[in-house]
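Researcher: Structure for this, please.
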Amino acid sequence: MQFEVTILGSNGAIPAYDRHPSSQILNYCGNLFLIDCGEGTQFRMNKFGIKRGHLDHIFISHLHGDHYFGLVGLLTSFNLNWREHPLNIYGPPALEEIINTQFKHSLTKLKFEIHFHPVLADIPRIILDNSQMTVETIVLKHRLPTTGFIFREKKNLRKILPEKIQQYAIPFEVINDIKNGADFTDENGRLIANDELTIAPPKPRSYAYCSDTIYTESYLEQINGIDLLYHEATFSEEHAERANETFHSTARQAASIAKAAKVERLIIGHFSARYADLSILLEQSRTVFPETYLAEEGNTFAIDSEVLLQKA
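Model: Predicted structure, token format:
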């Protein structure tokens, strides 16, 4: 089952070196989730073949422009393309006023409904809970109220072995109970253990997105053991003082978070425009956490229970 993250934008506030402001697409079994929406997001979606019609949820981490200036343009394109089904937007409470003001003064009436979900940056909260996954906020420390997001796949049911259904004449109406872990008693009163009838499902997968933040260990426990972590790494260690002044992190600090949280893989991004060559950031991160990758635009990171793949 698909669980992939595609990088649309990887730079900080200023686009540079063909890198664009923050934006990512998470694809879960064909259902698309947009994480931040910096300027130019819809152009990158076009370039990388992202089908907008499958996008029903947008998450905005905070109200610095490089994380949401592409949103109104994207919503306008949805409208011009005659979108009719509702769109869910999760973000700081003031974002709703910003969207409404834009459309009020352009005399734009949307053909689709926006369900706005205000997100507070005070304590972690579950902001989406459906049959497939939950999305939970991470409270970050930046110059504005800022949240990250954890996407957690829900545990699947156990898989019943077809040959066991035939062997023990298991009736259809009890199969779902068995998938949920129940034992089975046959017509002769013999108890058949669930472990004989089923195999365990794959381990649920997870992705954490840590947007702009100064170095802090306040959310280490929350992201412990995550399969794939994205963490901002705006600066190299040479500019650690600047990182601290602007409430950002260095590549080495991002790696320290990944190591302390015992995550499987790390993606670093939100690069300062001062770096034409990102190899210094990758090297500094890998000295602490070897399984580090750059958030290079167009790359897709596919998560499964054992391995992470990367493709251009």
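Researcher: Any notable elements?
Model: DSSP finds nine helices and 19 strands in the chain. The longest helix spans residues 94-105.
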